[in-house]
Amino acid sequence: MQELLRVHETIFWIDSSVRMQTSNLEPVYQQALNMSRGVVTFDDSGHNIFMATHAKVYRYLPITKDSAIKVQVYGAGVLFVNRNEQVRIWHSPVLP
């Protein structure tokens, strides 16, 4: 993704396991552009981070069990990434 974002301001990352039901991605594109964070995921995993993390790992993470229960997990099979300031901060100094 970093290589693509050096060349393109906006990318859709779509895993080969994803099956598209329409070729019209314009509504999704417009909705994603309105998001301020720069990264949008569309795949809700259906569980929280607590369910996906071994209990002993919390010894090393700065998060409580109660907080982990509240954090929803999203898949990375479909991502929209817009190279905005927030994304530049996350990947600095790689991106222009």
Description:
It is a single chain. This protein is an alpha+beta fold and 96 residues long. It has a domain at 2-45 and 74-91. It has helices spanning 2-7, 26-33, 65-70, 85-91, and strands at 10-14, 39-41, 44-48, 72-74, 78-82. Strands 1-5-2 form a 3-stranded antiparallel β-sheet, covered by helices on one side. The two termini are 14 Å apart.
Q: Give the proportion of residues in helices.
A: 25-40%
Q: Main sheet? A: 3 strands, antiparallel
Strand sequence of the main sheet, in spatial order? Answer: 1-5-2
Segments where pLDDT lies below 50 for 5+ residues?
none
Spell out the blueprint of helices and strands.
Blueprint: H1 2-7, E1 10-14, H2 26-33, E2 39-41, E3 44-48, H3 65-70, E4 72-74, E5 78-82, H4 85-91
Antiparallel strand pairs: 1-5, 2-5, 3-4
Would you summarize the structure shown here?
By secondary structure, this protein is an alpha+beta fold.
Keywords:
96 residues; alpha+beta; 3-stranded antiparallel sheet; two-stranded antiparallel sheet; 4 helices; 22% strand; elongated
